[in-house]
Amino acid sequence: MGKGARTRATILTAAVETACLGGFDGLNLKPLADRVGMTKSGLYAHFGSKEALQVATLEHAAELFQARVVAPAKTEPAGLPRLEGVFERWLDWPANAGLPGNCPFFAGVVEFDDCDGAVRERLVRLFRDFRQVVEQLVASAVRHGHLRPGTDPGQFAHELLALRYAHHWAQGFMRDPAALARTQAAFARLAGRAPRELAAGGVR
Amino acid sequence: MGKGARTRATILTAAVETACLGGFDGLNLKPLADRVGMTKSGLYAHFGSKEALQVATLEHAAELFQARVVAPAKTEPAGLPRLEGVFERWLDWPANAGLPGNCPFFAGVVEFDDCDGAVRERLVRLFRDFRQVVEQLVASAVRHGHLRPGTDPGQFAHELLALRYAHHWAQGFMRDPAALARTQAAFARLAGRAPRELAAGGVR
Fold first, then answer.
1. Interface of chain A against chain B, CB under 8 Å?
2. ipTM > 0.85, yes or no
3. Number of domains, chain B
């Protein structure tokens, strides 16, 4: 990695941390430049605009997510175990990736709801790509006989995101000690299993 | 209503609209004073601080929510129809209450995740109160034989919030035309009914 690429990586690591704590709107060039020990014009030379910095930060967060949440599925047994693994890693992925605060993608959803532009477009595409990954895992679990025949992967993926969102709310905001147990019971119900089966075997 | 109370109501209506569009952090005294045609010191006399204004705005939004989402249940048949009615009204309550933008409570969740203080405390209490309402409706639906015996009201309420959150994401952020159909199918599954039963009767 050349010096330029190393500097860029340093900036983006700090930028993802900033987004986890205060959202993408908090990604201003001056405080970020201060944080990584650069001048604002030096940082400007790397990205050119706040929007370009936000998009690059999203890309960097997406790479971390891919590496931490999705990629490990390859070494898990095919079917439901892979889907469960992805869901479990998704639940606390910022902490597992060494990030402070909360999922930056959920922060982006609130910030760019009504703001058309490059950041929103990129974030929508990230969610679509991940939903497609989940749908493929669901379809595979159906083929392996781990989920009921006729399960609609799109509907299942929608409901899985619902559980992740509620977990974000219950654990991150409400600080509910029962959050994880509720989320896992809901996953078990979604997968068509009794909670007892789950406790005995499946989800870690 | 005296002049002071009328002025306060005018300010809070504008404040809730502002929170729907830009969150509670966007509730600054100066722009809000400009919007309602007051001086900043005149507005300051009503609330004293930005935090007090944010809490009062939350209270006002909670009153609207109660009136628009919860109160109409009283005139619905007891049991599942009331629960369904509350859920359906919850889905698009800001628009039905004449508000622009999105649910201000969900905006607050992201903004006050890590910010301890009066606003966070009030918002946590609002969610707890509403969850209690939902749990009572679930328990009633169980007693009426509309939901499976043994249904856990706390778990059901958690999963209902999950569906509402996913709806917020799918409709508000992803602008997915299938959002409402997915949400209603998920509700039907949660209530233990086949989607066809739902289409034929229950949810509007």
1. 21, 23, 101-102, 106-107, 109-110, 112-114, 123-124, 127-128, 154-155, 158-159, 161-163, 165-166, 169-170, 172-174, 178, 182, 185-186, 189
2. yes
3. 1
